[in-house]
Amino acid sequence: MRKKYFYCFTLILILAGSYNCFAQEKIEGKALQEDIRVIEDLIKGYSLKLSKEEISNLEKLVSKHEKVLANEAFTAMEFFNYLILIDWNTQFDEHASISIGEEVLLPLLESSKLFPIPIKILESKIVVNSEDVEIPFCSILHSINGISFDSLFNKIIGVPMDSFYRRTLERQFSILYLIKKGSINDFTIAYSTINAPDKRVEKTVSGVGFNKYREVFDNVTFPSSKNKLIETAHYPNTHTFMLQLNSFDWGKNEKSGLFGFMTANSKLFDKKFKKIFKEISKKDIQNLVIDLRYNTGGIIEVPGLLYKYIALEAFEEDATLEIRSFDLPHMELIKEISGVPIEKIAQVKGLLSRYEKKFIKSDSTYVWETWQNKITQPAKNAFKGQVYLLVGGKSISSSAYFTALFKSKKRGIIIGDKLGGSHKALTAGQLLTYQLPNSKINITVPLMLLNFSKQLYEQVPEEKIIPESQLSEQEKLNYFINKKDGEFEKVVEMIGELE
């Protein structure tokens, strides 16, 4: 099993607001050692997947880095770069991350120049994803200032590239490059055009300020903006209906309550699904495409609600929540719970006391059996035709669970890239954001582990689901050149073959 690392995200606040300028002063070795010990405590305190051997290895790893840090002095930014290259084995999923706080990042962004070219990562090829920049659209990029992209990616993320990181880097590459390499006024880019792929040319382009960066990167060629929660489209010629769900969370700004990750706003989803599938039942629809390629999860009840509208028979769901302890490590360092600022430890303790009522002590952990043998019948207007499921690197969390449910029932064909998330290491509940005491770097950890039925794991044994149908790199490039949605075009081909 591949190790689970901390995922590194930069914190980008797009909304205007005041912030304190953070002087990049050097932090002495003793303080750096304290910070890295806190990280060790958080991993051991929250990760339920770590074996005794892995915990022992973690302790040895931290001890090794403590010795290194004893003679070092880093700025917060330098320490961030140091941390993300450590071979952490956390066994967390994509909900856990190391990030830079706004007090560090925003002043840097406002005073720096950023790499100005939006990119699209097609396996080994990195191509230009804009028609409004100085390098031609779809040119293949090879290097920046003499350093290859492969080398840059390795230095920036420090872990093996996968589908999740490809999608993340496409959006955050310029900022992560700034953090790693510092502000650079000019970038000499080696590239080749689609018309002359074997001929490399160089061009020097100027870096852009943060406002221009946001403008350029908000208008990439593909994919087009995915701002709507739910999008639909009807293609009468092929008797096809497209249902795109870009989140399983109805609204980030709505108060969802203590157990919102389980059921909040699920009735709104059910109401919307009921309306959509009633519409489908009135049309001559033979093919349904469900698009979860941009779905990073949300309410864990929604996958089952959606599946009942394509179910051919009754289906069963089981889910169990697990937490290591209600005596959380370093509670005084918690700054946010699921994005809500925490001012007093009493707020954290109050949350825990309400959760604790739901859990029962079991061996070395606490367990809450949320759904046991939950049987759901197909909806009244459940679709009975051919279903195609589109997934990719952004399909994580509860969208990974839906994909597993879909595959376990052999309900249709899965198309796209390997999932970014896993149904077998899914965390849930609240996300706790800690701020390290000296560097002020943020560490976000999930409070709970969500386990599904043994039967689901047996039916879908892989850690991250690989679609039955995947596009080759050349196919992706060809579709991209023509500004076509490759996965959807693949569905159209399949429909034509079935007719």
Structure notes:
The structure is a single chain. The strands form four sheets. Strands 1, 4, 14, 15, 16, 17, 18, 21 and 22 form a nine-stranded mixed β-sheet that branches. Strands 5, 6, 7, 8, 9 and 10 form a six-stranded antiparallel β-sheet that branches. A five-stranded mixed β-sheet has the order 11-12-13-19-20, with helices on both faces. Helix content is 33%, strand content 24%. A hairpin with a 2-residue loop joins strand 15 and strand 16 (340-341). The chain is an alpha+beta fold and 499 residues long. Mean pLDDT is 89; it is low at 10-23. Helix 1 (29-46) runs antiparallel to helix 2 (52-69). The two termini are 41 Å apart. Among the domains are: 119-208, Pdz3 Domain, CATH 2.30.42; 230-327 and 346-433 and 446-498, 2-enoyl-CoA Hydratase, Chain A, domain 1.
Q: How are the secondary structure elements laid out?
A:
Blueprint: E1 7-10, E2 27-28, H1 29-46, H2 52-69, E3 73-74, H3 76-84, E4 97-100, H4 102-110, E5 119-122, E6 125-128, E7 140-144, E8 147-148, H5 149-157, H6 163-181, E9 186-192, E10 201-206, H7 210-217, E11 230-235, E12 240-245, H8 260-263, H9 266-281, E13 287-291, H10 302-307, E14 315-323, E15 334-337, E16 340-341, H11 345-356, E17 360-362, E18 365-376, E19 386-391, H12 398-408, E20 413-416, E21 426-435, E22 442-452, H13 454-459, H14 473-481, H15 486-498
Parallel strand pairs: 1-4, 12-13, 13-19, 19-20
Antiparallel strand pairs: 2-3, 4-22, 5-6, 6-7, 7-8, 7-9, 9-10, 11-12, 14-18, 14-22, 15-16, 15-21, 17-18, 21-22
